[in-house]
User: Fold these one by one.
Assistant:
Number 1:
Amino acid sequence: MSVTSKLYEGKAKILYQTDVPEILLADFKDDATAFNAQKRGSISNKGTINCSISSKLFQKLEQNGINTHYLDNPSSNQMRVKAVKIIPLEVVVRNIAAGSLCKQTGLELGTILKQPLVEFYYKNDELGDPLLTRKRLLLLELASEEQVEEIIHLALRINEFLKDFFGKCDITLVDFKLEFGVDSEQNILLADEISPDTCRLWDNSTNDPQDRVLDKDRFRRDLGNVENAYQEVLQRVLKTVEANE
């Protein structure tokens, strides 16, 4: 299998078409962005770290009955994936109040939610990726009623798995973003990535509000040691995977 052309370049990855129409190649970049790309930078080895973390988590999710676009890794920062049509929604699952939820509601940072909150954001840079009500989502025909129900069901299942998995890594899963796509047979698959770029992760070994941050908030908030935090997540993920095999 060989690459034929660039299909799409996003903030964190480049997608390439291959000579097999059903298979794409995702190349993970070291580029970092925040605040809808208003802040830009680079994190050393981020592409390799995020690709490795995502690959391990996709494999574990597949073993737990969640269908993903993951196939294999031809290199350390590349992932072969099934070609899907991405549903233009960012699906955010929240377990603890942080980030925009605190800003928009006045909830105190760290408030544990009584039950997971699933939110939908429109993947549209020009509009600033706005939060959508369910009726607005359906009005825009971004997904069908049945697809919305399935996505919510899958998001909550993924949340339960990831909370348990990261707990074994001595990490608290605060919230995270998912993306889903539809394959040629109209199956909904988990796509994109699961990494410190897309998850808010707190180290359970410290209560310090800055030291505990193991995700892209270190870049957003200029906390420093970003690569070290990402590397720490990778090492804990690998250790946990190894311990459970």
Number 2:
Amino acid sequence: MTHQLPILNYDFNALEPYIDKLTMEIHYGKHHQTYVTNLNNALEGHADLAAKPLVDLLANLDAIPEKIRTAVRNNGGGHLNHTLFWDIIKPSKDVTKPSSKLVEAINQAFGNYENFEKEFTAAAVSRFGSGWAWLIIDEKGELKVTSTPNQDNPIMDGKIAILGLDVWEHAYYLNYQNRRADYISNFFKIINWDIVSEKFEINN
């Protein structure tokens, strides 16, 4: 299996003004492509591993030969994280709301949607350096907000991510410079809740 960039469901400029065209071109075409290329290079000569789904590789990193484990972790994580990210955002004019089942779960986990948004924002703002903020389904099937460093994905700890926000500087710096909080606030205006709701219901 040769890992490839996913096909975007929107044009590079479709997320403006919240994510600008140039950032999308670089983020998708350069950064994400590099993760894909490096992952394929790491798996070269390991046909058994290359044939496995990416989530299986990342959920069982201890089974990866030590020589390529870090490369698979970093680049496989980068590929999986970005693939999810492109999927769960969409042009603001097309944004809908979470499904009734997801709203119910959010209310149960956080009290209400506003509390969820505050907790997610706090996780994204407080992630030191590079990393991600997540809405995940834990081992008990409950929603939690968490964050991870670098390109780590919650699947590495047995959890399922249904919403993720890239807070590496390359994701926002051209447009927002050091204003990460503004970038995070605008993220909520382009969430593809149809996909997030679908991921939640598939895993519950």
Number 3:
Amino acid sequence: MTPVIETLLSHRSIRKFEDKPLTEEQVTVIIDCARAASSSSFIQCTSIIRVIDPEKRRLLAEYTGNQAYVAEAAEFFVWCLDFNRHLQIKPDAQLGYTEQTLIGAIDTALMAQNALAAAESMGLGGVYIGGIRNNPDKVADLLNLPDYVAPLFGLCLGYPAQDPEVKPRLPSSLIVHTDEYQPINKDALAQYDEVVRNYYRTRTGGTKEMTWSEQIDGTLGKEARPFIKTFLERKGLSTK
């Protein structure tokens, strides 16, 4: 097993960090690794906002649902889909297509995953913050994001001050299909549900017992952010 594989398979979300800064060299390497990610048609439609200002960090922690680690982590980055840069290069660029929004989201996620993997390979830890989309207008105003730029998620990075278990993922038998899409293997799902139940029971000392299926039932039983489509359209994205 290579060091790269060991790093990827040992991923955990870290939400408690030591009060220790990263060096500028570390930050540069992490960003360089992000920049090295694949880009659809070489469009390179991502911008990264490195948030250093303590007051902006405090507000972002509030906007994301009072997630304290947004303010406490050594570094916090907001990852944005960005077609405004292209508009500055080509003022008559044909923008607003849904396919462009998909490309931006995919490219940005690939870059962010490179960044986190690089950070973890250095002994750092992190956690993605989807709560950035809880208040996208406030985040956009705070970070002065122009049209055709949308905040997708955040990323906390720092030295871990906790050592959580690796969260059990769906087994390959439930996600890998051969030649065509296949119905869910209910026996494999039942086994995985018990693994997840035991994980939560152990992690919380018995205060939470939930299967993955139960979690999905709760999560997908309602629309989490019904305002996102309108926000994207106001930014000039996914209008056609």
